[in-house]
Specification:
The protein is an alpha/beta fold. It contains 25 helices and 14 strands.
């Protein structure tokens, strides 16, 4: 059944969308109109795969191809997880799937997967064994987010659920009894038609506070069927305390469809029942009336945050599955979480990560990929690049010194740069040069590393104290013992990193990659100095001769796991938002933690 029909002859966005969704092909659209439609479907999370070939346009074909690649990539990663779970007897349901083509919900921000509560610890452990990072800063009650990165890019995001809920449970165990295998994809288990209606109505209204075109599509695909068990749908919502929210969401979606496309696919008797039932709650009925007067109707269709929250808290108080004590505890916790969210307070711990190595070892590429991963994980961070003699104060002082030296007929640059034996005056000059660099770099590290970390920023250093010591000592003669010792103070005075990496690379390969044409002999000496420093300072040596992705994926995963393992803060503690506080109601995390790699 094509629920949407073209109801307008003029070229409006709604008429084009209705034509595409009714199976028609549009030809001769201007490129800007095609681009506008692509943007519309993207904003509404609608899968372009379902509309492939509907617009005769190069831009449309490219957008569909991008969706196909994204879907196949995400699905490939999910199949690996699903198969690993299946070998351990763990069932899963893709709760955001509508059950129709494409059944794999690749347009969702992350793949929401439900597992049974008794399987939660094992499911967590398997995800970590497969190289996923647990993003503890996005934890919710009985829900945790995992991401897998390649080259700093997230290739899979799995939101693992032990219940269907958003800070509180909205469904019942019956969802497992009615789940089915998707007809178009045997690897995906999806909710029943009734549960699709329940989940998407609750998620759109209570969680997102807006109804997208795809939300509407997942409802209208089933609500006109005569065999839909509406008694089951209403029963679950009533026992869980959100029957008013269900009726409001369904009536609102019917209104959106009618206003946007000219008619509603929902049977008249159902729409009448939904709107009539709202009379049981005058506040809800009054808000619905005001909402239906809004013009024009645009998708996604937003609803009032305050109104949604009022019904949400009423749901907490009316949930028949919970004791009175648990209901008021849920009210307190969700109120604090709501304050944290709306105030945009995001306290986090600081951490220092450094990458060292020869020029050409790939430090900048690794830092860039790590920065991309931290951005994806919503971790506030900054990248700091340092090198001896590159700060503004040092350059100013150096320019003044050179000018004074030139006026007195000083040595050439080549002579000054050569580490050779000299008389007491030259040795004294090199000692002063070393002291100046120590002071300069200590100030740089204080201002650009220590200070930001006081405010909870993660700092990633492209070159750090080890690089400075290796470089400065390579410019000094072995006889300059005092100057070499002084340079070593840079490592002593610098803040010790939480994770420090040495990208070890063959000198010949580093010379080939280096932009400044460094000599192989000098690179070999510096490599030995780096390896000695790694043993002295505990740097983790990574083989930079290997493919970039192999090493980078390991570094990114190691950094994220180290950071999120200690993500709790005192302010989050006051707001009951630290990971263990969010999930204090059950101890399912303990077995998973014991098996963490």
């Amino acid at each position: 059944m094509n629920a949407y029909a073209v109801v307008r002859n003029d070229r409006t966005e709604a008429s084009d969308v209705a034509a595409l969704m009714s199976g028609r092909t549009l030809a001769g659209l201007p490129e800007e109109q095609t681009a506008s439609l692509i943007d519309f479907f993207r904003r509404n999370k609608y899968p372009l795969i379902a509309l492939r070939g509907r617009i005769e346009s190069v831009a449309w074909a490219q957008a569909v191809e991008a969706d196909i690649e994204e879907c196949e990539s995400q699905r490939h990663e999910f199949v690996l997880v699903r198969n690993a779970w299946a070998r351990e007897g763990i069932e899963s349901i893709a709760i955001k799937s509508g059950g129709f083509y494409p059944p794999f919900p690749y347009t969702s921000d992350n793949l929401d997967v439900l597992v049974r509560r008794e399987h939660w610890p094992k499911a967590v452990w398997i995800l970590e064994q497969l190289g996923y990072a647990w993003l503890a800063n996005t934890d919710e009650e009985r829900k945790i987010l995992f991401r897998k990165f390649r080259g700093g890019v997230s290739v899979s995001a799995i939101h693992l659920h032990a219940w269907v809920g958003w800070d509180a449970e909205f469904h019942e165990e019956k969802i497992w009894h009615r789940a089915r295998c998707a007809e178009d994809d045997p690897t995906v288990t999806v909710p029943s038609r009734e549960d699709v209606i329940l989940i998407n109505a609750a998620h759109a209204f209570f969680e997102n506070k807006r109804f997208s075109l795809f939300d509407l599509e997942r409802l209208r695909r089933y609500w006109f069927h005569s065999d839909i068990d509406w008694a089951y749908i209403e029963g679950v919502a009533e026992r869980r305390g959100w029957l008013d929210g269900l009726f409001f969401a369904l009536a609102t979606c019917a209104h959106i469809e009618r206003e946007y496309f000219g008619r509603s696919s929902a049977p008249d008797h159902l729409v009448h029942r939904w709107e009539t039932q709202l009379h049981r709650w005058p506040f809800v009925r009054s808000h619905y009336r005001r909402l239906t007067q809004r013009r024009p109707v645009e998708l996604p269709f937003r609803v009032s945050f305050a109104f949604s929250k009022v019904l949400y808290y009423r749901k907490l108080l009316n949930d028949q599955h919970e004791t009175a004590r648990r209901r008021f505890s849920s009210m307190r916790r969700t109120l604090l979480w709501g304050i944290k969210q709306k105030s945009h307070v995001n306290p986090q711990r600081s951490m220092l990560v450094t990458l060292s190595g020869l020029d050409g070892s790939g430090k900048t590429s690794h830092v860039r990929a790590l920065s991309d991963a931290l951005t994806t994980c919503d971790v506030t961070h900054r990248v700091v690049w340092t090198r001896p003699g590159c700060s503004s104060p040092y350059r100013t002082l150096s320019a003044i010194t050179k000018l004074f030296s030139w006026r007195r007929g000083g040595a050439s640059n080549a002579e000054r740069s050569a580490p050779r034996k000299a008389g007491p005056l030259r040795k004294l000059a090199r000692l002063a040069w070393a002291a100046t660099n120590v002071i300069d770099l200590t100030l740089v590290y204080t201002l650009r590393v220590r200070l930001p970390m006081l405010f909870g920023t993660v700092v990633v250093c492209d070159r750090y104290a080890t690089d400075a010591v290796v470089e400065l000592r390579s410019r000094l003669h072995e006889s300059d013992r005092l100057a070499r010792w002084l340079v070593g103070l840079i490592e002593t005075l610098a803040l010790r990193p939480r994770l420090a990496y040495l990208l070890d690379i063959a000198p010949s390969e580093a010379t080939a990659r280096s932009a400044d044409g460094a000599d192989a002999d000098g690179a070999s000496l510096r490599r030995h100095a780096y390896l000695a420093a790694a043993g002295r300072n505990g740097l983790r040596v990574r083989n930079a001769n290997r493919a970039f992705g192999l090493e980078n994926d390991h570094i990114v995963l190691e950094v994220l796991r180290a950071y999120f393992a200690e993500s709790g803060t005192w302010l989050n503690g006051l707001l009951l938002s630290n990971p263990r506080q969010l999930n204090e109601i059950d101890e399912l995390f303990a077995p998973a933690q014991e098996g963490r790699p």
